[in-house]
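README: folding subset

This subset contains proteins for which both the sequence and a predicted structure token string are available. Records are stored as plain text. Below is the entry for 5531_t:CDS:1 (52 residues), shown exactly as it appears on disk.
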Amino acid sequence: IFNLARKAVRSAVEMGGESLDHLKKSLNNWFAEEEQRLAHTNNDNKENFDSS
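--- output ---
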């Protein structure tokens, strides 16, 4: 029984670690997309400002 419990805890920790990695990747992707979007918006504003 003790071995089973230890095995279950270990697999839960491994799955949790994978989930954390996945979450971190998702957040990094989201931040990168937001930065690109903001940079794009800033460029558009500059172009509009220059042309007027």
